[in-house]
Amino acid sequence: DHASILLQVEEHFGIKIPDEAAESLTSVGAIARFVAAGKTPASPA
Fold it and tell me: Which of 14, 34, 35, 36 could bridge across to 42 with cysteines, CB 3.0–4.6 Å?
C-alpha cells in the first residue's frame, strides 16, 4: 500500500517525506523524481 512504500523509501534513504508531498506522490516514478530532486534532506542525527 502507498503509506508502506513511502515509509520504506524514508527508511532506505534516511529521509522524511512531508505529508503534504506524500499526497501528490501517486506513482513510483513520482517518488523517484521527488527523491532525486533532493527535496527531502536527511534529518540531522
Answer: 14
> Taking the model in full, what pTM does it have?
0.73
The closest alpha carbon to 10, from 29, 39, 24, 26, belongs to 39
Nine-digit cell at 41?
534532506
CB distance 17 to 25 below 8 Å? yes
pLDDT in tens, 13-35: 899 999 999 999 999 999 999 99
CB of 15 closer than 8 Å to CB of 32: no
